[in-house]
Write a structure and sequence with these properties.
The chain is built from 9 helices and 11 strands. The chain is α/β, with parallel strands linked by helices.
Length: 230
Amino acid sequence: MRITVLTGAGISAESGIRTFRATDGLWEEHRIEDVATPEGFRRDPVLVHRFYNMRRADAARAQPNAAHRALARLAKHHDVTLITQNVDDLHERGGSPEVIHMHGSLLGALCAACGLRFPATLVMRSIDPCPGCGKPATRPDIVWFGEIPYHMERIWAAVEEAEIFAAIGTSGQVYPAAGLAQHARRAGALTVELNLDTSAVSRDFDQHRTGPATVIVPAWVAELCPPEGA
């Protein structure tokens, strides 16, 4: 069965990674405009690097939870395309064989001058030279507000081909990710929302399951897979 899964901050929250919420205009006590936009990086790259160094350290300390491991199990029995809005690597460490990071990754670095991508160090600095062009213009390889998410052609194709589309731990407030369920439904997929609460786009889903991801995701996966050990 072809299953496309979109995950958001809610699945990592139970591993101790704080979710992003913009209702008060702040993220970890910082203004969104200061730490999650190209303009903010140009104004104060030192602040932005300090912020993401903290995020990278937090992600390194976190451990995959039962929901991450359940999705890895799902991939063993079905043709799964796993798309995440998260920038941590908990899906990979949880056993998922391939993950599409539409908003980039804390493990990646990007040169704002020449566009070269390369592995990030645990601590990045504004004065670090790009290994390609040598300019001190390296930034986290994260998709910021105002930038286009990665791998969108591949993502739209996976959504259109899915028999089941599931969104897990997403708020439904950030586009284009919030529009994927509607697109999948129009293409004929069964759409399933698994969330702590209903999202802003709950109307686009055929089924709704609410509760902690570590509870409802393993239960949903168990319905789609043979019994463990069978």
